[in-house]
Amino acid sequence: MNKFIIKFDESILISSLKKKSGFISIIHDESDKLSISKRLELINLKDIYVELDYKKINSTDILVNYQLNAEGEQRCVVTLKAIKFNLKEKFTINFFDHNKIDLSSLEDEFIEPIYNSEINFSEIAIQMFYSFLDPYPKINNGNIKLDNFYKKTLSKNKNKNNPFEVLNNLNK
């Protein structure tokens, strides 16, 4: 089997994949993890691992099985505190020459067009990574006692010059 190692965000020519099938590992450095974190609005991306198993259908088309593992933290939509995530996902993407497919009626989200015989495998990995993340992450799966949260907020924001607060205190 053919084994390639490419850098994150590196485009690769299909013609450079000489064998009918093989593996591709996408490597990254700290600056790549920071840019992914910023793009996906993550608090922290501790690690990301992307391994590809490809099979060439013909000289212009390719079938790619992705293995994506990622670990990090995203922000709770209620409390804004950090929530850990640990993704382990497998998915398959079919890459076809853009001249062979009708892009206006493209319904299958697992088909990607190829332009100029180049593919950016990491871009697809990041797009799928984003789709696997919880769009509304909540601490304890949303089991949050909001009464305590609001009472703390209200007690901090008490204003003695507020006329309604003065009236409220007179009635006590």
Structural features, described:
By secondary structure, the chain is of the alpha/beta class. It has one domain. 24% of the residues lie in helices and 37% in strands. The strands form two sheets. The chain has a six-stranded mixed beta sheet, covered by helices on one side. The chain is elongated and about 85 Å long. The N and C termini lie far apart (81 Å).
Compose a concise summary of this entry:
The protein has helices at residues 30-40, 121-132, 146-156, 163-170; strands spanning 2-7, 12-13, 21-27, 44-56, 62-75, 82-97, 111-114, 118-119. It is of the alpha/beta class and 172 residues long.
Helices and strands, with pairings:
Blueprint: E1 2-7, E2 12-13, E3 21-27, H1 30-40, E4 44-56, E5 62-75, E6 82-97, E7 111-114, E8 118-119, H2 121-132, H3 146-156, H4 163-170
Parallel strand pairs: 1-3, 6-7
Antiparallel strand pairs: 2-8, 3-4, 4-5, 5-6
Fill in the keyword field for this structure:
172 residues; alpha/beta; six-stranded mixed beta sheet; two-stranded antiparallel ribbon; 4 helices; elongated
Q: So how many helices?
A: 4
Number of discrete domains: 1
Low-confidence stretches: none
Mean pLDDT: 84
Which outline best applies? elongated
Query: What structural class do helix, strand and pairing data support?
Result: alpha/beta
How many runs of DSSP E, i.e. beta strands?
A: 8
> Helix-strand pattern, N to C?
EEEHEEEEEHHH
Termini separation (Å)?
A: 81 Å
Instruction: State the strand order across the main sheet.
Output: 1-3-4-5-6-7
Strand content: 35-45%
